[in-house]
Amino acid sequence: MSNSNSAKVRVAVLYGGRSAEHSVSCVSAGAIIAHLDPEKYEVIPVGITVDGAWVVGESDPERLRLIDRTMPEVQRREEIRPSLDPAHRGEFHFADGSLYATADVIFPVLHGRFGEDGTIQGMFALSDIPVVGPGVLSSAAGMDKEFTKKLMAAEGLPIGREVILRDRAELTDAEKKLLGLPVFVKPARGGSSIGISKVSSWDDLPAAVELARLNDEKVIVESEIVGAEVECGVLQYPDGRIVASLPAMLRGTEDGEGGFYDFDTKYLDNVVTAEIPAPLDDATIELVQSLAVETFQALACEGLARVDFFVTSNGPVLNEINTMPGFTPISMYPQMFAASGVDYEELLDVLVQQALHRSTT
């Protein structure tokens, strides 16, 4: 692949990966590749297969779209290797040692484990190349719901009740009393609602834990929080400013077959809509935005994040943070910023420039 136009910033867009969110990552990457300004940026597509092979990526974003409920997947192509040597930073080589491309910045559009959890961020830190989004600690803590909540609690932010199951599948009577029914059983380090169950009878808990453990050996059991599902994007500019988007309220999250905001409801069933801005009073909107920024700072994030809430009768309660939120055409993060006056192309420009600026300071 040629790097002939040195005036353009060369952006390596990484996508796919070994997580259960592989296909969502592909769709996100297709949208990003289609919206990076071709006058400013040269895209270097890098795919990672479901079994972890790094390959020459797909340059045609149309091949990375969701079509008729069929999710895309990284196909086996010619393998490449990233350089971890600062003297050859940003380089990707073929197996024979010849150069595929040299990137100026990495955009890891990887959702879930081995991508959004600090592993990729740490790997590229070895070669001193700028990476879009939060760094190692923020990514790792944001991916692990146990430690996300511990850091939020340490900052005095409002969170729900939860119990962590490491080496057991049952709760004690005291824990059941603490949580009440129904509960949500989740992989502690997962996303896109994969492996999540809503449990309304304690008899169903072991099966729900078993399902969650297909994705993560550590399981979190959370009390149901009754309230509107509201999301808020956070964006950091190259000059350090941190801004929150207009929040979105999700409608129809319980209309899918699973009865909650599961994977099919998010990506396939087309039953969820969003109101942007969320139909909340001004004071609540400002509080959601303030809490989103505080959460971003509590985890020492950089670049971007999406913070999810339940807005209850007693105010907003934090649910989770996503340090590399979805960028698919229907994803909330770009939609919220578009409603806030930052279109998709400008959003990507800010993120890439922020990563480049961070590497020079």
TrEMBL record:
Cofactors (names): Mg(2+); Mn(2+)
EC number: 6.3.2.4
Record keywords, A-Z: ATP-binding, Cell shape, Cell wall biogenesis/degradation, Cytoplasm, Ligase, Magnesium, Manganese, Metal-binding, Nucleotide-binding, Peptidoglycan synthesis
CC annotations in GO: cytosol
Annotated InterPro entries: ATP-grasp, ATP_grasp_subdomain_1, D-Ala_lig_Van_CS, D_ala_D_ala, Dala_Dala_lig_C, Dala_Dala_lig_N, PreATP-grasp_dom_sf
Subcellular location: Cytoplasm
Keyword set includes Cell wall biogenesis/degradation: yes
A single MF term (Gene Ontology): metal ion binding
GO biological process: cell wall organization; peptidoglycan biosynthetic process; regulation of cell shape
Catalytic activities: 2 D-alanine + ATP = D-alanyl-D-alanine + ADP + phosphate + H(+)
Domain ATP-grasp residues, every copy: 149-353
Binding of Mg(2+) 1, residues: D308, E320
PROSITE patterns listed in its UniProt record: ATP_GRASP, DALA_DALA_LIGASE_1, DALA_DALA_LIGASE_2
Pathway: Cell wall biogenesis; peptidoglycan biosynthesis
Active site: E21, S192, S331
Pfam family, one: Dala_Dala_lig_C
UniProt binding sites for Mg(2+) 2: E320, N322
Coiled-coil features, chain-numbered ranges: none
Comment on bound cofactor: Binds 2 magnesium or manganese ions per subunit.
Protein residues bound to ATP: 145, 184-186, 192-193, 222-229, 319-320
Homology family: Belongs to the D-alanine--D-alanine ligase family.
Function statement: Cell wall formation.
Name of protein: D-alanine--D-alanine ligase
The encoding gene: ddl
